[in-house]
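# nightly structure sweep
# worker-07 picked up a monomer target from the shared queue
# config: single-sequence mode, recycle default, output format = C-alpha cells
# input follows
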Amino acid sequence: MRRRVWVSVAGALGMAAATTLTPALLDQAQAAANGCSVTYTTSSQWAGGFVANLTLTNTGTTALTSWSLTFTFAGDQKITSEWNAGVTQSGEAVTATSLSYNGAIASGGNTTLGFQGTWTNSDAVPTSFAVNGVTCGGTTSTSSSASPSASATSASPSASASASASASASASASKSASPSASASASASSTGTTSSGGHVADPFTGANRFLNPSYVAEVNAQVTADGGNAAEAKVGTYQTALWLDHIGAIAGDSNVGLAQYLTDAVAAEKSGTPEVAEIVIYDLPGRDCAALASNGEIPATAAGLTEYESQYIDPIASILSNSAYSSLRIVAIIEPDSLPNVVTNQSLSACQTATPYYESGIEYALNKLHAVSNVYNYLDIAHSAWLGWPSNMSATPAVYKTVVTNTTAGYASIDGFISDTANYTPTQEPFLTNPTLNVGGNPLDSVTFYQYNPTFDELTYDTDMYNTLVAAGFPTSDRFLIDTSRNGWGGSSRPTALNSTPTTATAYVAANKIDQRPFRGDWCNQNGAGIGTPPTDEPFGTSSPIMGFVWIKPPGESDGDYPTSTHTHGDPHCDPAGTNTDGNGGTYGTGAIPGYDVPAGQWYAAEFQMLVANAYPAL
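# output follows
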C-alpha cells in the first residue's frame, strides 16, 4: 500500500448552542401562509473557528418553491465555506439562498444547510431570521450553558470527536438519479433501513470490526516495546483490509476476504450489525503516475478482462454469500484512479490507463452494488491534489461519466472518501482564511500552497461536495476522511495562532500543522502522527462529512526505493531524494531517514513515530 499526491480535525467542542425561532404573529394571515422556523446549532467550535448547522422548516400553509434566508450575526463571525445553500455576507448580515435541488419545501417540510467560519471576539448565535422577507423569529433557547472560549487549549479535537461520535447520519442510501429526491431522503433519520436492507449511514448503530491480522501486528509491536499502552490503543480501532492484488482475496499476505468476513460475523452481538471495511485496489495500470504502488494487471484489453473475471468477480461472489448478509461492508473503491483521469492526462501511462480505469470501476460498481449490504465509496484524492479550482471544476465530469454509466446510476455509490492513506490535515486550525493578506500577499500564494485555497480536508470536501451536487450528484453522497495519519502532533505542532510574522511565507510556516517540506510528499512522512480515531458524524448530520475512518493501517509502509541491492521501488520514497512541483521547485521527499521498507510491510519505526505524534494523543 502506498499513497502519492499531486500538484482539519475540528477543535474542542466549546459550545453546542441551538436557537429555535417561531413565526412572529404580526400578521396572522401572512404568517399562516408563509410561516417559518429556523434551528441554528453550533455543532463544533474552537478558538477562532466554528461549524454551524441550520434547519429551515416551512410552518406555513403554502409550499415554498425557493427560499432566501437572511439573518445577522450577533458576533464577528465570517463564513469561509458553506453547503446546501449559496451564501453571501456583507458585514455581519448573511443571505443564504436555495440551490436547484432544495428550493421546494412543502408545508411542514424542512431542509438543512450549514457553514464553517472564523471569529475573533465572539461566536454568539444569531437571534432573528427571515425567509423571503417574512420574519420567523421570536423565542430563543440553548441546549448548553457553555460559552465560547478563545483559549488556545480548546484546540484539542478529542472532545469534539468524542462528543459527536454518537450523532446519527442523514445521508440517504436509497438514492435515485434525481438530486431533489435524494435531498428529501437525506433529511430522514439515520440508521433506518431502506430498500434491500441498505441503511443511510453504515456506521450508525453498528460495531466496527477489527482486522485480526492488523491487531496481531500491533500486539506484536506492543510486546516488543514492553507493553506500550498508547501503542496498544491503536489496535482497538478499525482499519481496512486491503485487497491490493488477486492473491490477497485468498489471503496470501494477510487474512483472506472470506475468513475476514467469517470472523466479522462471529464478532456480531445480538441485534447489532458489524461494519467491515475493504479496499478495492487492483485496476489495470494502477497508479499510472507513481511507482511504489504500481499494480499487477497491465492497462490492456486483456488486463481489463483479468481484472473483471479474476479480481472483481471473485470478490463479488464472496460478498454475496448469504452467510455474510448481516454485515455492513464498506468498500473503498480504487484509490488514485479517477483523480489521475482528472489531472494527469499529460502522462502517456495515464492516457493509456484511463479507459480501463473508467470501465473497470463501472464494472466494479455494478457487481458490488448488486450486493445490498455493500456500501461503495469512491476515492476522490485530497485537497493537495484536486483542491485547485481548475482541478475541482474538472472533477464532476470524470466521476459523472463513470457513475451514470452504471446500471443503477447515482445509486451505485454511497459517497466519497478523501485523504486515503495520505497525510493532509482534516483542518488547519490556525490557517482558516486562505486569502488573508500578510505583508502584501495572500496566504495561499506561498510556495507550500501555490494558490490552492483548500488548505485542509474539511474545506476541500465541503467545496467538492458543493461542486458535485451542483453537477447533479445527490446530496446524500457525503464524504469519509481517512484520518489514520493526518494528526501532525508532536513538538512541532503549533499550539496557538502566531500573528507576529510580517510575510505570508513566514506566517504560514509559523502556523501550519502540516510539517511536510512539500504538500506533494506522500511516502512514509517523517514527523507525521495518527489523527482522530474513527468517528461517526464528527461535524453533525448536516455536514458533508459523514465520518472519520482509518483506511490505511498505521505502521504499514507506503513503499521502498531503488538501491544498489534492489532496483524496485519508488524514488519518491528515498529520504535522500527529491520531489518537484511542476513549476521548477524542488523539495525533499520528507520520507523517514534510515529505513527502506517495501509497501504494505510492517514498519516498526514508523508505527512508533505515528503513536508518539498522535493528535489527539492516544
